Amino acid sequence: MWPLRSGPPEAVADGGSMPLMSHLRELRNRLFKGVLAIVVGTVIGFVFYEPILQFLTQPYNAIAPDLIGRGIDTSLVITGIGGALQFQLKISVVAGILMASPVWIWQIWAFVLPAMHRHERRWALLLTGTGVPLFIAGAALAYVVLPKAIVVLIGFVPDGFENLVSGAEYYDFVLRMMLVFGVAAEIPLVVILLNRLGVVSSQQLVAARSWTIIGIFVFSAIATPSTDPISMLFLAVPMSVLYLISETIARITDRRRARAAGEELADDELSSLD
């Protein structure tokens, strides 16, 4: 039986244990703080809906004159009686989740970290601190690519037709592009983590380089919401460069690991016939 305890959960040592009820209370408190932060962020997103909407529609507005010059009549529309309210709520919730992400991500780590050893904590925090900027950079790149992708896709509208883009459809397109680019930017972390765990070596990464790059281009062609080659290249080329960077880091890590292993051997064991 785990003892029932009142008050805040006690601190635990590396790899230590905590009573079950203390775990549950800790989880409840962490969830409450994370959800509360998301609710507050959603309210802020609802209040600042107009600037957020302007930011999201900026790529579309930037290419509107070019489309008009080419004789393509296009506009953003919101359909349905309650469509405008649903659209505003959807944007506010996603904005709230993003604004509250530092809080709820930290609540997750604050619950998990006490059960980790010191070196595991160091790597977890390092990966988190590196992963967030990479994701933001990938999403920012998608935002830069958006106008070109929109121009290419709407450019297929035949003569005599008017292009009406619903706000929900446009929002889903923008969100998917930013998510795909953001997740794709995490590829160095995945490769480095697998290398640190000993799952793959730098030699294996070099041997699989050509097939990996082909897979990256195939993934980019499938994952990007648009079908134009420009968006695919904007995703595939940075992913390939990041893979080459992670391959170099893995090579350095393997050399340090081999050097450290060699120092642990006796002198007579270091000599090798080959």
From TrEMBL:
One of its GO terms (biological process) is protein transport by the Tat complex. InterPro entries: TatC (IPR002033). Keywords: Cell membrane, Membrane, Protein transport, Translocation, Transmembrane, Transmembrane helix, Transport. The chain crosses the membrane at residues 31-49, 91-112, 124-146, 173-194, 206-224, 230-250. GO terms for molecular function: proton motive force dependent protein transmembrane transporter activity. It comes from the Bacteria. One of its GO terms (cellular component) is TAT protein transport complex. Pfam families: TatC. It is found in: Cell membrane; Membrane. It is a multi-pass membrane protein. The Tat system comprises two distinct complexes: a TatABC complex, containing multiple copies of TatA, TatB and TatC subunits, and a separate TatA complex, containing only TatA subunits. Substrates initially bind to the TatABC complex, which probably triggers association of the separate TatA complex to form the active translocon. Belongs to the TatC family. Part of the twin-arginine translocation (Tat) system that transports large folded proteins containing a characteristic twin-arginine motif in their signal peptide across membranes. Together with TatB, TatC is part of a receptor directly interacting with Tat signal peptides. HAMAP family: TatC (MF_00902). This is Sec-independent protein translocase protein TatC. The gene is tatC.
